Amino acid sequence: MLLEIEGLRKSYRGGVRANDGLSLSVDEGEVYGLLGHNGAGKTTLVNQVVGLLVPDAGSVRIDGRDAVAHPAWARTVCSVQPQAQVPIAGLTPRQVIGLVGRIRGLSSREAAARTEALAGELEIGEWLDTDGARLSGGVKRLVSFGMAAVAPGRLVILDEPTNDVDPVRRRHLWRMVRQLADGGSAVLLVTHNVVEAERAVDRLSILDHGRSIAEGTPAELKARMGAGMRVEVVLEPGVQVPVVVPFAGHVVRDGHRILAALPADGAGEALAWARSLTAAGVAQEFSLSPATLEDVYIQVAGESDVNSDDAARPGAAGEEVA
Fold first, then answer.
1. Which range marks the domain in which residue 177 is found?
2. Measured between alpha carbons, how far is residue 141 from residues 71, 102, 170, 295, 310 in Å?
3. Do 112 and 200 reside in the same domain of the chain?
4. I need a surface site. Which of 189, 260, 265, 271 has the fewest CB within 10 A?
5. Taking all residues of the chain, what is their mean pLDDT, rounded to a whole number?
6. Inter-residue contact 208 to 37 (CB < 8 Å)
7. pLDDT tens digits for range 21-75
């Protein structure tokens, strides 16, 4: 394995344990996802891999070498897109991407060619010579990805790479993440965008309070959690009527969306229930589809269950509608 993490622990002042015995491994040619809510310990893990934080316990090895004992070396073999925007005011995307390429060993000609190629694939060519201070947040994010991808290291770490990026360019970026792995790099992808990550990762860990609470391929996790089908209902704006889903045990209401995992024989009942909500003017639309990684994430990481006793409040749970 190219990246091996064993028993990693890190606590902050006040006793907050950001990483609590984390272990994982990522091989070359693999996209490995770290999923979790804000504060789950994802960025703390990344900072220890590249030597910006020293673990309280545990080990980090890159290509068999102790990265904790050799943090400067670890940074030479890692390409990192940090979570925070890179400050590039006063420089253009062409300059900063090319500069990173030169620092990582490309010739001037190679760095220039690679910069042009990345700009074309990400559709940011029109901003290549624009001062960084005048770029939108999404374009800055793509430039930051370009800086990590221009001359990728053995390990490429992408921390929330699609934040602020528009839907079209997000597709380009995910395709290029796959290209990085296909080119031989190990990719450690940090994200909370579960829906998009499902299409990009080979394996993943779901983190919660510093621990890995589930690990495997998306298909393995869905099979393990018994995720077969799901029904999604989008309520009309302003609807405050409590809604109960009578046929499902685990149900989540997220704003105007209701998501429910279905038993194997529950599709017919779910369809009738969703149609009744639409006919009553409570729901805008609904869909019945195979379960996704989002359903698994919600199930294992936990969100408010609209059928639970403590969710009996306006807009969350209560008596059945229609």
1. 3-216
2. 26, 20, 10, 28, 40
3. yes
4. 265
5. 88
6. yes
7. 999 999 999 999 999 888 889 999 999 999 999 999 999 999 999 999 999 999 9
Number of Cβ within a 10 Å radius of residue 52: 15
Q: List, for residues 254-269, the tens digit of each pLDDT value.
A: 788 888 877 767 888 8
Domain assignment present for 229: yes
- Max CA distance (Å), the chain: 68
Let me know how long the chain is.
322
Token pair in block for residue 161 = 């790479």
| Helices 108-122 and 167-182, axial angle in degrees (round to 10) | 130
Q: What is the mean pLDDT of residues 10-27?
A: 93
Residue 36 to residue 40: CA distance in whole angstroms? 6
Place of tokens 């804000």: 38
pTM: 0.83
Residues 164 and 239 in one domain: no
Instruction: Identify whether 316 is part of a domain.
Output: no
- Are the C-beta atoms of residues 46 and 157 closer than 8 Å to each other? yes
């528009």: which residue's tokens?
166
pLDDT number for residue 249: 60
Q: How far is CA 38 from CA 17, 78, 143, in A?
A: 14, 24, 24
69 lies in some domain: yes
Q: What residues contact 134, with CB distance under 8 A and at least 6 apart?
A: none
pLDDT tens digits, 155-167:
999 999 999 999 9
Residues 105 and 208 in one domain: yes
Task: Name the residue type at position 42.
Answer: K
Q: Are 103 and 95 in contact (CB under 8 A)?
A: no
Q: Compute the average pLDDT of residues 182-211.
A: 91
User: Does some domain include residue 321?
Assistant: no
Last residue of a domain, one of 165, 198, 216: 216
